[in-house]
């Protein structure tokens, strides 16, 4: 029962991490600037994400613009996109595989060994998905930090970490942790020994000799 509870906990954590990866990928707040140029009244904040850039006006209205061409984007941004999309797809595969191997499901009940392996395999896929998201967010965050501390970057164009990066880091950690719980939820195989054979007992002697 303890193994089943750990397995369920791992799946819930990994699933929440997968949802967080989707939210982080869709959010435009991957990096943000507190002001736009010298005209603070026109726009209070600028945001840039993987798919679009947004500007929040002083009235609270947000205007977003999707990137025009894929070929005009930086290679690091394209690689970050690819890693996040790969993490989402891997997480989707891991969900189906893990559900098949869950002890609370009735699938593959006739073969517990294969059912156990499916849960472990789903956990491994969750870990890979979490690592892909972690690499993407860390890579993007490193690029933002380097540009911020670069003395040649104008002060008015410096960006800081956006909320999508923090959500991505937390989601990747949940996916890795949940996948690890799924991998560790399988009970260890106990060594089975052949049953001991009893030796026949000698019949009690009746004191009579047979010729």
Automatic annotation (TrEMBL):
Its main location: other. PROSITE patterns: CLAUDIN (PS01346). It is a multi-pass membrane protein. It is found in: Cell junction, Tight junction; Cell membrane. It comes from the Eukaryota. Pfam families: PMP22_Claudin. The keyword Transmembrane helix applies. Coiled coil: none annotated. GO terms for cellular component: bicellular tight junction; plasma membrane. Keywords: Cell junction, Cell membrane, Membrane, Tight junction, Transmembrane, Transmembrane helix. InterPro entries: Claudin, Claudin1, Claudin_CS, PMP22/EMP/MP20/Claudin. The keyword Transmembrane helix applies. Claudins function as major constituents of the tight junction complexes that regulate the permeability of epithelia. Belongs to the claudin family. PANTHER family: CLAUDIN (PTHR12002). This is Claudin.
């Amino acid at each position: 029962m303890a193994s089943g509870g750990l397995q369920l906990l791992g799946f819930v954590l990994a699933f929440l991490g997968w949802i967080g990866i989707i939210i982080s990928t869709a959010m435009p707040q991957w990096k943000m600037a507190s002001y736009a140029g010298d005209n603070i009244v026109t726009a209070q904040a600028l945001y840039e994400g993987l798919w679009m850039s947004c500007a929040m006006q002083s009235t609270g209205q947000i205007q977003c613009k999707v990137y025009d061409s894929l070929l005009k984007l930086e290679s690091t941004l394209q690689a970050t996109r690819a890693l996040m999309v790969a993490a989402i797809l891997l997480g989707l595969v891991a969900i189906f595989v893990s559900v098949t191997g869950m002890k609370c499901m009735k699938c593959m009940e006739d073969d517990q060994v294969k059912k156990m392996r499916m849960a472990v395999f789903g956990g491994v896929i969750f870990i890979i998905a979490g690592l892909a998201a972690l690499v993407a967010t860390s890579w993007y965050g490193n690029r933002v930090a380097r540009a911020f501390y670069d003395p040649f970057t104008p002060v008015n164009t410096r960006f800081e970490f956006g909320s999508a990066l923090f959500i991505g880091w937390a989601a990747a950690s949940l996916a890795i942790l949940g996948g690890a719980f799924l991998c560790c939820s399988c009970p260890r195989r106990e060594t089975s020994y052949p049953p001991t054979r009893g030796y026949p007992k000698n019949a009690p002697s009746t004191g009579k000799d047979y010729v």
